[in-house]
Amino acid sequence: MAFMGITRRALTCLAVTSLVAVSAPARADDASAWQSVKKAGVLRCGAAVAPPYVMRDPKTGDYSGFFSELCRTFGQNVLKVKVEFVDTTWDNIVAGLQSDKWDLSMALNQTPEREKAVAFSAPATDYNVSFVYNKNNPKVPKGAKSIADIDKPGVTVAVMSGTAQDKAISAAFKQATIMRLPGNDETRLSLMSKRADLLADANITNMLLTEAHPEWAATIQPTPPLAQQEVAFGLRKDTPPADIALLNKYVDEQVKSGSVTRLIKTSVQAMLATNK
Predict the structure, then answer these.
(1) Which of 61, 82, 114, 120 falls between 20 and 30 A from 214, CA-CA?
(2) Which helix (H) or strand (E) holds 156?
(3) Does 32-126+229-275 match 127-226 in CATH topology?
(4) φ and ψ of 239, to 5 deg
(5) Residues 6+ apart with CB under 8 A from 226
């Protein structure tokens, strides 16, 4: 199975001094983030649904997806604590981290705007925005390859509110109508019910939809890539450098060992099985 946009850039650990605001209050050496987590006995992972990064079973409430597994393994195997997933939305994923409602935000795109508010781990994978559409929709021209090809009056683009893709298309689209919806299910339903002409989402997430519905779904991968970014864990700005370095070491090991690639494949297969 080919994975668009999953090719890893060379992983370089971010300079920890750039991740910690100069004006942020310093933690005492004996009160580091991970020491506090160990004392509490639980690592809280902020979870906003975005398959296959973060998935939630609506019946059981159980979390899966490759970022969920990374957070779970980091807590259980590295910090030796229990792991708790805290439900949130993409509109609140940063604010909740800042207000100490959880310890890590999962699958956070590293944008300049977010870098002002939170720190980031080393990236686990890459991201860009793609568009899924119905092959039979006359509003979407055949062979469309650029934003200009689809940014037309009368075209409606569905997107999850507050996500990186929301911000990306808000800046790129000038004529099309943007339909902002609260979750992944709502955006997909809007496309399938033909209320929306295009669905803007992460390249890996959109791949799930086209794989599940090859009879009608097709993807536009814009040239040049839209919002090419790295996806990582978000941490509070005052997280000590040593704590960031420990998380970076873990993420780096998971990437280099091929574990992340395997988790992505497993998550995609699980999502496709659910959609059958």
Answers:
(1) 61
(2) strand 156-160
(3) yes
(4) -65, 125
(5) 128, 129, 130, 147, 168, 169, 172
For the chain, what are the domain ranges? 32-126+229-275, 127-226
CB-based burial label for 2 (10 Å; 0-12, 13-18, 19+): exposed
Q: What is the pLDDT of residues 142-197, one digit of tens each?
A: 889 999 999 999 999 999 999 889 999 999 999 999 999 998 889 999 999 999 99
DSSP structural state of residue 276 = -
Question: How far is Cα 172 from Cα 166, in angstroms, rounded to an integer?
Answer: 10
Residue 275: the pLDDT is 59
Residue 180, Cα to own-chain centre: how many angstroms? 17
> What is 127-226's CATH topology?
D-Maltodextrin-Binding Protein; domain 2 (3.40.190)
Question: Domain 32-126+229-275 falls in which CATH fold?
Answer: D-Maltodextrin-Binding Protein; domain 2 (3.40.190)
- Using alpha carbons only, what angle is made at residue 125 by residues 119 and 129, rounded to the nearest 5 degrees? 95
Query: pLDDT by residue (tens digit) across 22-77?
Result: 333 344 344 689 999 999 999 999 999 988 899 999 899 999 999 999 999 999 99
Sign of CA dihedral 64, 66, 71, 77: positive
E strand segments, 33-166: 42-47, 55-56, 63-64, 82-87, 104-109, 118-120, 125-134, 156-160
The residue with tokens 């040593």 is 242
